Amino acid sequence: MTxxxxxVDDIPxxxxxxxxxxxxxYFEVLTASDGFQAxxxxxxxxxxxxxxxxxxxxxxxxxxxxxxxxxPETAHIPVVMVTAxxxxxxxxxxxxxxxxxxxxxxxxxxxxxxxVKSLVRxxxxxxxxxxxxxTTRNIGMEEVLANGRIGMxxxxxxxxxxxxxxxxxRIQTMLQGSATVDVETDPQAGFFKAAEKDxxxxxxSTGFSGYDPLRICSQLRSLDRTRFLPIILISEPxxxxxxxxxxxxxxxxxxxxxxxKQELVARLRTQVRRKHYNDELRANVxxxxxxxVTDGLTxxxxxxxxxxxxxxxxDRAVARSQPLSVMITDIDRFKVINDTYGHDGGDEVLRxxxxxxxxxxxxxxxACRYGxxxxxxxxxxxxxxxxxxxxxxIRQHIETEPFMVSGGARQVNVTTSAxxxxxxxxxxxxADLLKEADTALYEAKAGGRNKVVAIAA
Length: 457
Fold this sequence. Notes:
CATH architecture of the largest domain: 3-Layer(aba) Sandwich
Structural class: alpha/beta
Number of strands: 17
Mean pLDDT: 88
Number of helices: 15
Shape: elongated
CATH class of the largest domain: Alpha Beta
CATH topology of the largest domain: Rossmann fold
Number of domains: 3
Radius of gyration: 30 Å
């Protein structure tokens, strides 16, 4: 694992010490001696994690962190505050300023590397999601990270896995008013509960008797539904090796007993905010994919999807010696409809036409808007005569039921013409298949419209 780490400290010896440790682990290191220089570097360079000192002249680390998290261009960069201050209030202040983690000087090597590696993994995931979402119309997505309140009006729902009543009752009390906590004392039952319900974070105690809690971490990371669910480990003093293994398995954060209430709440808030941000990005990516392959007016697949998927269906049919038929249909005299009822009326007709197409085809059939008032239906495993029957059924359904326009105030009679083609001796490519169907459609139009023509294979 490699990444670019920015070390910010006004004391050169501290910078050099961290730089040597990080370079030994094959990280690339950038350095800054004050907050102003750090902000400038982040504006110009790609930075994966920032190690930020708090006590600096001119602008302290708290202010630097706030500025980084307030900027949509840098808000996603994980920040670890590194300081000689050892008060819980200082750690909480740093986390509330937007920091993702906190290390106290002198920095423990295990804690340094585990924190950095965990945050690098998180940054890598976030970068991938941000890249995929970059072309969408959903602007302002980056601000979700900077504003943890967006979409988080309700208390986060937390699953706590802990078998000791004295421990889980204390944690429940600490989180009262900050989260809704479900407690599960059986680790396997907890795993199934995490997989079945929608939790914001899972907190796992290492204090199970006769059971390795890291097995739960591993299982959660191996299941698709919980792969990105934040995990916080509650460990005992002296469990550095277990913490290191847990971070390698993909947990997001850890606390060592005795637990400070404010730090627990702050770290939990950080994980919930990060989860919300990445959930928004994933949803945005899904929306992007849907937008890329779906016609916005009719809800049918668009030509881009047809061009990609038809080739796969064609190749499979040829390889398996199975029939495949295609119907191209369009609305007769659609320009007259647009001229008479306006483009709004034309859109109403297109939407209803699409609805009737979907109603008359099977789930395995592919219905697409080809462009304008032209549509394509791909029918796998369908013989030519069956495809002709389907096209004729659609034609009759269009003709016999008037379309409503102007919000249902007016009726318009609509007809359609269709051309059908199937895989045969003359057809060796997808282009041949579409050309044959298009030729059949032209014949239907030339023959008086409102009819189906199928060209024999």
